[in-house]
Amino acid sequence: MEQELKALLATALSEITAVSSEPSLEDFRLRYLGKKGLLTALSSKMREVPADQRSSVGALLNEARDGISSAIDQKKSALQAALDALQAAGLDITLPGRPLPTGGLHPMTQVLDRAVSILRRMGFALATGPEVETEWHCFDALNTPADHPARNESDTFYFSNGLLLRTHTSSVQVRTMQQQAPPVRIIAPGSAFRRDEIDATHLSAFNQLEGLYVAPNVSLADLKGTLSHFFRALFGPNTEIRFRPHFFPFTEPSYEVDVKLTPKGQAPRWVELLGCGMVDPAVFEAICNSRNDEVYHPDRVTGFAFGMGLERLAMLQWGIPDIRHLIENDVRFLSQFSA
Ligand code: DAH
Questions:
Q1: What is the pLDDT of residues 162-220, one digit of tens each?
Q2: How far, in Å, is the centroid of ligand 1 from the Cα of 195?
Q3: Contact residues of ligand 1, CB 6 A cut-off
Q4: How far is the centre of ligand 1, averaged over its atoms, from the C-alpha of 327 (Å)?
Q5: How far away, in angstroms, is 337 Cα from ligand 1 center?
Q6: Which of 248, 251, 254 has most ligand 1 atoms within 8 Å of its beta carbon, as the pocket-test mutant?
Q7: What are the sequence ranges of the domains in the chain?
Q8: Which of 19, 70, 215, 252 has the most CB atoms lying inside 10 A of its own CB?
Q9: Which ligand 1 atom is nearest residue 167's CA?
């Protein structure tokens, strides 16, 4: 009993040094001196102490109780003194803290994440390619002739060494097929650059998402099914889409895809959202020549490709009237999109 009392006092005195707030001091008090406290538990054992030792053990018990009580009192005044000092210095730590502003994901990041996650669930893998490209990857391999207007100096940013800033992410199709044998099923989100005048619907640096699926017997039906599913997942299960014949040098046949959307408070209307088509055999021939093999021979594989502008997708999803909002980083605009 004597040993236990001494040990209890020693532990209590060392524990109290770590106590640094009123509530934890009260916890400490209850743990030792409370009705179910450690010291109280020990004192109830007094009955078992032989009569001749009772007075010395009793004295020790009082000593322990006084020791702990006065340590508590000292701590209490120390804590109060610290509080007073802070208050004197103009700091009141009992006031609730100022909330820290938390960030959110940029609307472009949100659109990109959604699009990528839908397409990844359909088996598309992520692919990347450089933003500084060769003319061959950006145009020639994609069956775009030297006199095509997109290749003009006034449309494309050229470097003096002949390289350029890619005008679309379609160049990643070429790089992927050079590196991997079929089947390939990839998406390539990334920046593209054009010498456009900046206005409410144009930026000179913007984002696209490219898709490519090449394997034996890929058909137009596969393309339609993929895109229908994609837009239903994005805009809701009843979303209607339509294919309008178009021309792209690297696909044949080619289409623009319109989606029927109902902007807030307006009548439904068809909105053009992407370009797509069946990979032109001329593209496969360019790939075969550069790979020096025949795995992409147009007799062996077919494929579909599509490309869409991501800013446009974000603008439609939220009814953003001006594309420039997306690059201005005005918190009054951006905070509307944080969850
Ligand atoms: N590269 C085209 C553009 O920037 C979009 C596009 C159209 C991509 C058709 C494709 C495609 O892959 O098949 O306007």
A1: 999 999 999 999 999 999 999 999 999 999 999 999 999 999 999 999 999 999 999 99
A2: 17
A3: 168, 170, 210, 248, 251, 275-277, 305-307
A4: 23
A5: 29
A6: 248
A7: 2-87, 107-337
A8: 19
A9: 4
Contact 313, 115 (CB under 8 A): yes
Question: Can you tell me which residue has the tokens 């078992």?
Answer: 48
Distance of CA 328 from the midpoint of ligand 1 (Å) = 27
**Report field, pTM of the whole predicted structure over 0.90:** no
- Nearest protein CA to atom 8 of ligand 1, as residue: 307
Nearest CA to ligand 1 atom 5: 307
> Which of 169-173, 266-270, 316-320 is the most confident on average?
169-173
Work out whether strand 205-215 and strand 251-261 pair parallel, antiparallel, or are unpaired: unpaired
Spatial separation of the C-alpha atoms in residues 315 and 108, rounded to whole Å = 9
As given in the structure block, the two tokens for residue 325 are 């909002």
Which amino acid is present at 248?
F
Fold for the domain defined by 107-337: BirA Bifunctional Protein; domain 2 (3.30.930)
Residue 143: both structure tokens together? 């069956």
Tokens representing residue 215 in the block: 């394997």
- Assign 339 a pLDDT band (cuts: 50, 70, 90): low
Distance CA 192, CA 132 (A): 10
- pLDDT over threshold 90, residue 84: no
Element (H, E) at 179: helix 171-179
